[in-house]
Here is the input.
Amino acid sequence: MKFQDLGLEADLLSALTERGYIVPTDIQAQAIPLLISKDTDFVGQAQTGTGKTAAFALPMLHKIKADSRGIQALVLAPTRELANQIESEIAKFAVNKRVNTFCVYGGTPIGKQIGDFKRTRPQILIGTPGRVLDLIRRGVLDFSECKLAALDEADEMLDMGFLDDVRSILDCMKTDYKTWMFSATMPREIRRLVDDYLTNPEEISIQKKTLSNEDIEQQYFLVRPGDMPEAVARLLETMTSYYAIIFCRTKLDTKNLSDALNSRGFTADCLNGDMSQDQRDSTMARFKRKDVDLLVCTDVAARGIDVDDLTHVINFGLPLDNESYVHRIGRTGRAGQKGIAISLVAPQDERKLRFIEKMTKARVEKKNLPTAQETRDALISRLSARVIDCAREADLRDPGLGAFSQSLEELQRDDLVRALYMLNAAEKLEHLKRRERLDAPERGGARTGRVESGRGERGARPERGGSRAENMQQDGRNTRPGFSRLVVNVGRNTSQMPFRQFLSGFARELDVQERFIQNMDMGQDATTFDVPDRFVDRLVATKGIVFGDQTLRLDKTAPIGNESGRAPSPSSAPRRSSRPRARKFADNRANG
Here is the structure.
């Protein structure tokens, strides 16, 4: 089956052809003809990365009336990254139609957003629940012409605490609209939302895929987080060839890692949610042309990437959920080709591999990282081969070659060898002098090539200096699993608000519900707090938000041994106060 068989109008088919879309995914093949032909509520259950955006965007565009300038369709997404991506995808599908789209989300000045919205007059509005609800309450949005509401990643909106906001938004819609809901899972709360707001919905469920591709070899390397950039470089240096995607958890990691690799002589581009669509398109074009060998990206930014001939997928740390792991590594080993999936795993995350093996029904083999000597040998061997090949292929009739040779007559053979070495290898080899081995010790019992269910005997705990309280502040043991500790440049010296008022206002400005901000400690000049890991990259990238008289700057608190980090060192971080942990406030909720 092809897209032309789904009943889409010519303008949309033309846009799909221009983008190289030919064969629909399972959810697209089943949902698109149904949503085009029927005026119905709809529930589509399919895992992340299966093409759900096109599954609702194309029939939505098919139904939009271009001559009407009111909002005809609303799309809600859990994060601003996903909302931006959806808006970009819809705009590209609509390139041959007179349809305007607009995206709204928190973390940006609302006044400018309102002005841009009024100038754009979109027929399709995409946004995060908190900002959409805020605009409704301000009287900015008019849904009198709205016929469709699409909820993407509904279970993610539940996990992030947005379901009450979603209900409030749907309550503001008129009675004769249709709701299309897409979700990877169908927990009880989502099913209750379906029962409350959808009428006799058509339902499609795409079978959850497990990885059974024998063409993918899965490997992992145990390495401390601070050594991961060097570990990636050593692995690449010892490969004979590669065309790879490297997945990182945060946007900051994508930028830092791609910069580090380029400084070592590799060709890498990064792809993340901070980039404009033009930048994303340019980056993807370079990667598809193989002008660069490495694409360093986040999971959200990688959605929609379709490249069939990747030799490697590298996980710069394990993803937060196992389904993301399956989706990541499924990008290699396609079209009958062999692929290698490499995971750099921190010692504390090694236990997660047991669940990954169970889910993928495949072995994840533990390997040792290349030593400095092995990396050095590989680099010199490759350089020597390049020099020999160049010497054999050189055109002796090239007039420039004669002039160049004459200019070097005073140099002896050893001088030329040294010069070649200094120009091509010395800087790379300098990095290898620091450590012979990068493999991290295991936290528990030995793992001999497989994940074992037993934990084994715990090794001797290293000596620590300082008090227990100081150590907890340093290594984050007081931070719950799945949460990260952040620091912001606002404290008692810069905010005179009572604690409760500060928390409420702070959460509202960051577009995060209060209940997700925990363990908040106010110091004199800075405040530390815990948030779920899924918020970290968005919050750290936050720019231009003014709280009181202070422009907010957020960062991760520095882990042990990372004195070079931008966050304050543990000794200068605000002391843990006697204040109670931030509670889940039922009243005065921030608009998330």
